[in-house]
Amino acid sequence: MSKVAIIGCGAIGSTIAKAIDSGLVKAELIAIYDIVIEKCVDLSRSMMRMKPLICTDLECLLINKPDIVVEAASQEAVKSHVPYILEKGVDTVVLSVGALLDPQVMERIREASVKGRSRLFVPSGAVCGIDGLKALSIVGFKKVKLITRKNVKSVDEKSLLNLGYKPSDITDSTVVFKGSAEEAVVKLPFNINVAATLKLATDSEVEVEFIVDPKTPRTVHELIAESEASRIRVIVENVPHPDNPKTSYLAALSAISLLKRLIEERVVIGT
Fold this sequence. Notes:
Blueprint: E1 2-7, H1 11-22, E2 27-33, H2 37-46, E3 53-55, H3 58-62, E4 68-71, H4 75-87, E5 91-94, H5 103-116, E6 120-121, H6 130-136, E7 143-150, H7 157-162, E8 174-180, H8 181-187, H9 193-202, E9 207-212, E10 219-226, E11 231-238, E12 240-241, E13 244-248, H10 249-263
Parallel strand pairs: 1-2, 1-4, 2-3, 4-5, 5-6, 7-9
Antiparallel strand pairs: 7-10, 8-9, 10-11, 12-13
């Protein structure tokens, strides 16, 4: 049975852990790690079958030789930990995708994966159509645009303040950011991983528009992509994660689906 370790015991990390614990993902959860140790303790206590090792550092996480490590913590965790994990020969699933748009981070990851003969995987996350975009990247794109609309309660307050907006002052639909995917993941590091995923899938410039709307109950991602082979327009209306409104429930389910694919599937569907 495949052995999995998880970095980050927030809403998504906990959802993945419970999917393993319930048997939905046929794997053994051997270790969990979070900089807030209480989150690890609470997660461990909530589990029915698995009793993973609670870790306070990366060496602890790797001591029992996991087959896959899932990062569900932060961009900083990706930068600090993922190259080392890959260099040790452990395949890694990254959810804080924004970190991968830093060229220096990506170069370190590529070098580490070659040295460790390991691979890095990025789930589709909170958007659909990634398989089509990957196929179209062969011929290139004329345009790729992402329009994201979120309730103010689902947006990181510090990010809004840094953009010059006080959350309590936003009473109507407001465009708080326009720019590239690279700029978006820096300005909105906890709210726009989708932009990074699109950038990686298309290998093209991605125009991002981020709207804060106190009246919308869901997080809406509208993707528009144009190429010589196809025109794609996808609208996804995501329900917030029940344990963290800043995260879409679909993002957690996407990671679980990827784990099942890596661990269980012998017939692979999709690009």
